[in-house]
Amino acid sequence: MKKYLYLFVAIATLLFAGACSKTKLNPVSTTSLPLSSTFSTTGRIANQINGLYSAAKSGNLYGGRYLIYGDVRGENFLNQTGNVVTALAIWNFTVTGSDPEINNTWNDAYAAINMANIFLAGMEAGGNTVAGATLSKNYNGEAKFVRALMYYTLLQLYAQPYVNGSGSQPGLPLRLTPITGSGFNNLARSSVSDIYKQILSDLNDAEGSLPTDYGDPGLNTTRAHVNTAIALKTRVYLSMGDYASVITEANKIVSASAPFKAPSGVANTLQANIGTVFTNYNTPESILSMPFTGANEAPGTQNQLAYYYLPTIGNGEFSLNPSGIVADAGWTASDARKSFIYTDSKGGLWLSKYSSGSPYLDWVPVMRYSEVLLNLAEARVRTTNSVDAQAVALLNAVRNRSDPTTTFTAGNFATATDLINAILKERDIEFLGEGLRSPDIMRLGLSFPAKGSVKAVDPSNAAYIFPAPTSETQYNSLW
Asked: How far apart are CA 276 and CA 222, in angstroms?
């Protein structure tokens, strides 16, 4: 395997974005354009921002596989094909550091990180002047947002959760310097805590730099804005168990009472019908989605969500586990989210949340407003250690949207723990197939439940996290 595949991907992408045609008097190579030239016009700078989002929606990341890995490690899906190429070893916890999926996700995430690093350095070296004060501020915020998202993504797979030693465990190599040549392989891992600190630093900077509203529903869904950074911070703080900070951040974009809505910036709010979120991708509930608008943008072979989960239009790699969340008696037949469950002629259960056939252009949800509401609900209960009234109202907002026949009251919960369990169950139902199951299990220090022929995996098991990728360990002597 080539050393640091992500290094070459990042450099090639930037050079391609800035390449120009040769002139007769001063020929300039289109494959070795100086980095300074890639920041010489506003158009080239804008292309690089688009390139950052394109890197994040790689098929190995938010084009599909990151969400798939986050779900199939949990107990809600059963493997049906035995295909080693499509996450079998991840599902059954037998993956090794040399497996392609372990290396591809790692390499693509670091490629996006390096692209962000190169972009930020280039802007500082002259791009800020070219773009002007407002645009440069916005663009730098977007680059930091993407870098934060990538580091958070890597932590959820390759590092121990924050709850294990309060972030003291080894995390990731923290690469903040652009790699534009050889000789930068060796870098020791920073602690989990230090990686989270960098993520939050980037997101705080992004919050202060991003636009409040692009004035266009499509851009508000596919480009980071102020509320996007805040929403991601609620997820990050929840992963750290810093519930007071979850509340502080969520209160910026959640009104004090129902109907819950962001009081400033993009008017993020729940949609009346959850089905709308997966057919009209530009609603205010979708805080960030990865768009796929044509065959040339498709996630790529065997990366697509519908390919994995729905056999009528895909390969049916993973069916729903009849003993998983679908078996929960509290998930009633009247719940609109039950419409996402397809039953085949043999009684098999499948997820139809993603329903576009080849070339599989379903937009991939990175974060929805319903998650922010449930993040806030959980944090309020954990900080007050009570059956918190607002937490119940937030839980009802998500449940009633899909199941108006079920309304929770404080009397339904004898203890704060009972309410927390109801919120966690709601997350399991609401985000089925959206990649949050594994991060939820890990942030709480729980065991991965048994499923089918796979035994439970507890936090002390080496398989609890992904192994170190050989593309890193072979060339980084400080790992």
From this structure: 17
- CATH fold for domain 1-21+31-210+444-474: 1.25.40
Closest by CA position to 394, among listed 353, 430, 342: 430
Q: What are phi and psi of 423, to 5 degrees?
A: -65, -40
pLDDT at 15 over 80: no
Q: Which two tokens stand for residue 132?
A: 């002007």
Q: Quick one: CA dihedral 211, 215, 216, 217, positive or negative? A: positive
| Overall size of the chain counted in residues | 479
Contacting residues for 167 by C-beta, under 8 A, at least 6 apart? 191, 192, 193, 194, 196, 240
Using DSSP bridges, classify how beta strands 189-191 and 170-173 pair: parallel, antiparallel or unpaired: antiparallel
Give the count of beta carbons closer than 10 Å to the beta carbon of residue 176: 13
What is d(CA 357, CA 298) in angstroms, rounded to the nearest whole number?
11
This prediction's pTM = 0.94
Confidence band for 7, pLDDT divided at 50, 70 and 90: very low
Where is 368: in which H helix or E strand? strand 364-368
Cβ atoms 102, 466 nearer than 8 A: yes
112 touches 55 (CB < 8 A): yes
CB 118 within 8 A of CB 180: yes
Angstrom distance (rounded) from CA 48 to CA 31? 16
Handedness of CA 119, 367, 193, 204 (dihedral sign): positive
Q: How far apart are CA 179 and CA 11, in angstroms?
A: 8
Strand partners, 77: 320
Hey, where are the domains in the chain? 1-21+31-210+444-474
Cα(50)–Cα(428) distance, integer angstroms: 32
Among the listed residues 99, 56, 93, the one whose alpha carbon sits nearest the alpha carbon of residue 72? 93
Each residue's pLDDT tens digit, 214-261: 999 999 999 999 999 999 999 999 999 999 999 999 999 999 999 999
